[in-house]
Design a protein that fits this description.
Blueprint (H helix, E strand, L loop, with lengths): L1 H16 L2 E2 L10 H9 L1 E2 L2 E5 L7 E8 L4 E8 L2 E9 H9 L3 H8 L11
Parallel strand pairs: 1-2
Antiparallel strand pairs: 3-4, 4-5, 5-6
Helix pairs in contact: 3-4
Length: about 120
């Protein structure tokens, strides 16, 4: 029982110590997987999630910002997961409020802010 407690304690300490401050994030990623892991393991000043929406295509979305001006958006759809970078907070706020998330996405996000992967 005690050894399980120590194992859990060490695991929690490792996870917490692996968190990066958002000022340390480098958005020059070598792979999509690296981008997701880096974003998820960074301590951003602003982290928000959009889960309740009535879109048939968009399941949910997350927004991460270091400076409350620009940030990363991870979009989860029935067709996959997409990352956008340097997306203005104002676009995220308007996306959250949009009656049609899909229509807003097509007009204001699609074709912009794509994550660039270094090859």
């Amino acid at each position: 029982m005690i050894s399980r407690f120590y194992l859990l304690l060490v695991t929690i300490l490792l996870v917490v110590s692996c968190q990066k401050d958002c000022s340390e994030i480098n958005s020059d990623f070598q792979s999509y997987h690296e981008a997701v892991i880096t974003i998820k393991n960074t301590d951003f000043h602003l982290e928000e999630e959009l889960t309740k929406n009535n879109s048939s295509w968009i399941d949910n979305a997350e927004y991460y910002s270091c400076d409350n001006n620009f940030g990363f958006m991870i979009l989860y759809t029935d067709g996959g997961e997409y990352i956008y970078q340097k997306m203005p907070l104002s676009i995220w706020r308007n996306f959250q409020k949009a009656n049609s998330k899909g229509r807003f996405y097509n007009r204001h996000i699609k074709g912009k802010y794509q994550l660039n992967i270094r090859n």
